[in-house]
Amino acid sequence: MEVRAHDDPSAWLEAVLPLLMLDEARHDLCLGLVHTLVHHPSVYPSKYLWSVEDAGTVVGAALQTPPHNLILGQPSAEGANDLLADAIESAGIQLPGVVGGLPEAEAFAVAWCARTGNTARRVMGQGIYSLTEVLPVPAVAGTPRTARPDDLNLVAGWIQAFQDEVVPDALRSDPEERRRRLGSILGSDEEGICLWEAEDQVVSLSGFGGPTPNGIRIGPVYTPPALRGRGYATTLVADLSRRQLASGRRFCFLHTDLANPTSNAIYRRIGYRRVCDSVVLAFERA
């Protein structure tokens, strides 16, 4: 086996797609990110892309957009991620952490720490969910609409509140970078923000983006504390998921914090089914 570094996201995707499509839900984050690298290259000016090949077959894959964590694919050959850890460390790249399914993310962390002397700290355990059919949910007052550019201040403020409430420090994005990204997607059909309006005000928000060959990721989902418990987020996510499926997508994906039983239960009621677990690990220097 050998590790190959790639400069062209399109060429990397062509090489690793057969491996990633063995489990599209598990790799939705990876597939969604490379979609952005291919179609919106200015979003991430710096990137690293690797494949692990064995006799012409790709058996491992990973990518990173510094300063963010490495996103790891599930290898199909034993030892593939050990080789990745060797190659990345030998290139002098300092990884802040790794995101990936279990057990491959933890196995990579062991290999990385053995080579670097780093320690790995668990930041968050996540459930990866997939939906193919929306179940009936109780109706609530209001209507959905796609967020427009003039909603930028509201959306940016609510997503900041979401991050402050539930996102660990190691996973928070830069506010200015996030605002620029929001400004580029509001009003887009490919990715964006959907709002639920009731009683002449916006009461809930759900994002959608990171398209994969057959699906799209839903999230983040946020309702201000004073408006919770009324079913707005449940109805919004159900409606948004239904419309994504109706547009021709086979799947909707989402990632949940496994430490939050309320959100996990809500998504199951809508029809989301947990397909695997993933983990976010931070690397800390000795």
What does this 3D model show about the protein?
The structure is a single chain. The protein is an alpha+beta fold and 286 residues long. The chain folds into two domains: 126 residues, Aminopeptidase, CATH 3.40.630; 137 residues, Gcn5-related N-acetyltransferase (GNAT) (Aminopeptidase, 3-Layer(aba) Sandwich). Helices cover 35% and strands 31% of the residues. It contains eight helices and twelve strands. It has a twelve-stranded mixed β-sheet, with helices on both faces. It is globular.
Topology, element by element:
Elements: E1 2-6, H1 9-20, H2 28-39, E2 48-54, E3 57-64, E4 70-72, H3 80-90, E5 97-101, H4 104-116, E6 119-131, E7 143-146, H5 152-166, H6 175-185, E8 192-198, E9 201-209, E10 215-222, H7 232-246, E11 251-257, H8 261-270, E12 273-284
Parallel strand pairs: 4-5, 10-11
Antiparallel strand pairs: 1-2, 2-3, 3-4, 5-12, 6-11, 6-12, 7-8, 8-9, 9-10
Helix pairs in contact: 1-2, 3-4, 5-6
Features:
single chain, 286 residues, alpha+beta, Aminopeptidase, 2 domains, 12-stranded mixed sheet, globular
- The geometry reads as globular
The profile of the biggest β sheet is: 12 strands, mixed
The number of domains is 2
- Main-sheet strand order equals 1-2-3-4-5-12-6-11-10-9-8-7
In CATH, the homologous superfamily of the largest domain goes by the name Gcn5-related N-acetyltransferase (GNAT)
Residues in β-strands, percent: 25-35%
Mean pLDDT: 93
Report the end-to-end length measured between terminal Cα atoms.
31 Å
Q: Extract low-pLDDT stretches.
A: none
CATH topology of the largest domain: Aminopeptidase
CATH class of the largest domain: Alpha Beta
List the total number of helices: 8
> Could you spell the SSE succession in H and E letters?
EHHEEEHEHEEHHEEEHEHE
Q: What's the CATH architecture of the largest domain?
A: 3-Layer(aba) Sandwich
Total strands: 12
Structural class: alpha+beta
Helix percentage range? 25-40%
Radius of gyration of CA atoms, rounded to a whole number: 19 Å
